């Protein structure tokens, strides 16, 4: 599939993953509404399986494989939510999963991936080592590579969160989601733009603003090993995700590290929701009133937090 995914692909993904993925709730907070100067609706993907939206895309990709492909198993390299998502999706399909993880990945994340039945292969903590190791694993096993974001099946799966949001909340003026590799944001843009009048906005850290620069310059500006608390948003856009964002005219806003920590704390304290720093990025943009509109939807991307390294003081 080389064309860009459509809303029909997202609808198809929703049907495909329906027996396995949660329809996550939408929550609100009067306190946050007051700070934001708008009604804010939180689509809680932190309550999704594996604690993140990533399960939607991984599940759709694995269930889209032919029987012949699935028998070969699946492989990826990831130290984050995609690793756990693909491991669980493979277990559901009953196929092998090979996950390449850097040797400095948190032990809790490795344990979660292994808990879903995947085989974890360690590598040095560099992109080159990740890519070389997963290539070797694929060569040895014949497994199908499932990328974390730059894949039409992944984009369609991630777009099912916005598809649900459109059915749960009427008359939104804007929907905002975080952007790293762009799978969630591009899927959100397709679903939102096809089903409503709402604008789609992406949010990223000022310290990792490659998507904002890419949209301004009309080309993919790769990230250069950015340092940000929002570790899930350090990745550069892919060719497919960038093409969707340009086609849909998605605006990107940025927030500071201080903004991210404050937003994360507000949600923990006021809404009693555990969200990870990457999920706090669009919340920070809303709290700073960088998003215009009376009714704003926020895709809360995940809730997987290293509790030994909380940023609160």
UniProtKB/TrEMBL annotation:
* UniProt keyword annotation of Ligase present: no
Where is the Tryptophan synthase beta chain-like PALP domain positioned along the sequence? 18-302
Q: Which Gene3D superfamilies match?
A: 3.40.50.1100
**Catalytic EC class:** lyase
- A GO term, aspect molecular function: threonine racemase activity
Offer one example of a GO biological process linked to this entry: D-serine biosynthetic process
Query: Needs which cofactor?
Result: pyridoxal 5'-phosphate; Ca(2+); Mg(2+); Mn(2+)
Q: What CDD domains is this protein classified in?
A: Thr-dehyd
Q: What family does the Swiss-Prot or TrEMBL record give for this protein?
A: Belongs to the serine/threonine dehydratase family.
This protein's species is: Sorangium cellulosum (strain So ce56) (Polyangium cellulosum (strain So ce56))
Gene name of this polypeptide: ilvA
Iron in keyword set: no
Q: Which UniProt keywords apply?
A: Lyase, Magnesium, Pyridoxal phosphate
Q: Which domain of life is it from?
A: Bacteria
EC no. given is 4.3.1.19
Q: What is this protein called?
A: Serine/threonine dehydratase
The record's listing under InterPro entries reads:
Ser/Thr_deHydtase_PyrdxlP-BS (IPR000634), TrpB-like_PALP (IPR001926), TrpB-like_PALP_sf (IPR036052)
């Amino acid at each position: 599939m080389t064309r860009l995914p459509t809303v029909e692909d997202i609808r198809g993904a929703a049907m495909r993953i329906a027996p396995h993925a949660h329809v996550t709730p939408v929550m609100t907070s009067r306190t946050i509404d007051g700070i934001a100067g708008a009604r804010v609706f939180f689509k809680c993907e932190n309550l999704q399986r594996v604690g993140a939206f990533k399960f939607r895309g991984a599940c759709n990709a694995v269930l889209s494989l032919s029987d012949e492909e699935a028998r070969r198993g699946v492989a990826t390299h990831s130290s984050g939510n995609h690793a756990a998502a693909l491991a669980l999706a493979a277990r559901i399909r009953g196929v092998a999963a090979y996950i390449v993880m850097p040797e400095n990945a948190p032990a809790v994340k490795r344990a979660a991936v292994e808990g879903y039945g995947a085989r974890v292969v360690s590598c040095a903590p560099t992109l080159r080592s990740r890519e070389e190791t997963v290539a070797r694993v694929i060569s040895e096993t014949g497994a199908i590579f499932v990328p974390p974001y730059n894949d039409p099946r992944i984009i369609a799966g991630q777009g099912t969160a916005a598809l649900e949001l459109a059915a749960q909340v009427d008359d939104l003026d804007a929907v905002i989601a975080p952007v790293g590799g762009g799978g969630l944001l591009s899927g959100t843009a397709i679903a939102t733009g096809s089903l409503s009048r709402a604008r789609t906005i992406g949010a990223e850290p000022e310290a990792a603003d490659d998507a904002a620069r890419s949209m301004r310059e009309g080309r993919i500006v790769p990230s250069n090993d950015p340092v940000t608390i929002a570790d899930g948003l350090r990745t550069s856009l892919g060719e497919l995700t960038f093409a969707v964002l340009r086609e849909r005219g998605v605006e990107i806003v940025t927030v500071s590290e201080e903004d991210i920590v404050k937003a994360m704390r507000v949600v923990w304290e006021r809404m009693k929701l555990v969200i990870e720093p990457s999920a706090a990025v669009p919340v920070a943009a809303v709290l700073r009133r960088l998003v215009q509109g009376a009714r704003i939807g926020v895709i809360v991307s995940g809730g997987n937090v290293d509790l030994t390294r909380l940023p609160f003081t």
